[in-house]
## 1
Amino acid sequence: MITLKDVFKIYGIGAATVHALNGVSLEIEKGEFVGITGSSGSGKSTLLHMVGLLDEPTKGDVFIGTTDVLELSDEEKSRFRLKRFGYVFQDYALVPELSAAENVLLLAMARGLDDEEAKIKSVEILEKVGLSGRIEHLPGEMSGGEQQRVAIARALVNNPEILFADEPCANLDSVNSKNVLDLFREINRELKQTIVMVSHEDWHIPYFDRIIRLHDGKIIEDYKPKK
Ligand SMILES: Nc1ncnc2c1ncn2[C@@H]1O[C@H](COP(=O)(O)OP(=O)(O)OP(=O)(O)O)[C@@H](O)[C@H]1O
């Protein structure tokens, strides 16, 4: 689905130069639940930004299927992000004045679904993530774990080909973290949803089908843990 070939990402200039990625090559296959792990500063978020089309490499190639991403216009990339990908970040990024349903609806409508279809889809997906009792709640009226599940519903409402998650459990306690990971595993198994998730927690590892471990911007391990 996504191929990176010898990707480098260099931030800054002169003495302030940081080599965040140093020649990373990998392929993400359909249906995988991939964990990107490694210590702080190893390049995990930078790698997620490359595969999720949120940033461009300094050098190297990124392909989605056979499409060379670097050949796409900004508008074409935006369309990819909006219609074909879903994103979950650690800070939920919900609109505080909008209910759970409206936060999800906003994205469904941006995709071009008509009002009625978007409403039905938004409620369905909130039920799927276990929030049937919170549909009309504002973000401020929900726990962190519930808010993150709204963000996951929002990311899933467009049936994305790939769900990208950057440390989605970083602000959650262990119970809510487990709920989010269980939910990811369920949607991966049931909906065959491809998921690429950044994590620095060792206890998350058994959830992944495949682990890509980074060190100093290089892949030092890429393996499928025994189940
Ligand atoms: N916009 C930027 N400008 C300059 N340097 C950056 C920028 N973004 C990241 N870096 C640097 O690139 C390196 C990799 O950063 P990245 O955020 O990808 O690491 P990470 O593994 O996700 O770390 P963490 O677990 O702490 O979030 C780090 O040294 C970081 O300081």
Note: The first helix runs from residue 44 to 51.
## 2
Amino acid sequence: MEHFGDLLAGQVQQKKSAVCVGIDPRWKSLPESIRAGVDSGDRSAVAKATECYCREVIDAVASVTPVVKPQAAFFELLGPAGMLALAGVIKHATKAGVLVLLDGKRGDIGSTAEGYADAYLGRESAWGCDALTVNPYLGDDTLEPFVHGAVRHGAGIFVLVKTSNPGSGFLQDQVLSGENQGQTVFERMADLVQSHAAATQGTSGYGAVGAVVGATYPQQLAALRQRMPNAWILIPGFGAQGGTAADVAHGFDSQGRGAIVNSSRGVIFAYQSEQYKHLDWQSAVAKSAHDMAQQLGEATPG
Ligand SMILES: O=C(O)c1cc(=O)[nH]c(=O)n1[C@@H]1O[C@H](COP(=O)(O)O)[C@@H](O)[C@H]1O
């Protein structure tokens, strides 16, 4: 069985790109040609068209993206037909040679977490994902089943540490007292992630357990890179949320490894931007992913 940390390292090296394309298919933003003739009140028809669009997005970016991150929310809102579409998208990406990191932000008491882990993690699981985003703020006992599930199934997890949203400081930046006096909540979480990452590391030096740190907090990102030397970092918040290549540069190690940078709207809806308006929609998507890879390559060390 492949080791997730090594598999991701190999993919990033092969594609020469740290781009993670986020698949967040908001119906109203899909190209006119995809929406034409589809009754927006018919969830089943919308789900089918959405799947078709996502497959084309994957084909457009497959050569330049080691991993895609489908956002479960936009499939769930289409009901059961949306879940079938999500399954189709996962299979399509896998066939195209792109790793699938499902953004489900799962987290629950230990016994339920085990159910989520077995449902999503690994190519042999019901959903067949290579990795899953996990919300750890229920406590360390709720993270363990995901860690064990990842190792058992040759998959990975990305644990929320410092999220990109404006309100992430409400809890995550709080300073602890007692045994961990002076540490912030997100630093304590980072230490937990690092311990799991070190315990699960493969030959690349990176573990099956990674962290999520927003591009919108570049100083914290730089500090967290040092604090979690064995953890892959998924960096969302690039593009639409304001994060730049310079902001994410310190999320990489000194050899330019160890991080993937997600952009969803900025890539999959690139045809809406002035810069790419002259291109057909698939070419706009492909070009924006390619440009992002280039920007990251220029800004990263190594
Ligand atoms: O786990 C995530 O991917 C995530 C964590 C975080 O801190 N911030 C964040 O934006 N995300 C997700 O990353 C994607 C960002 O989308 P864009 O802002 O369109 O690039 C969305 O699917 C978010 O749910």
Note: The mean pLDDT is 97.
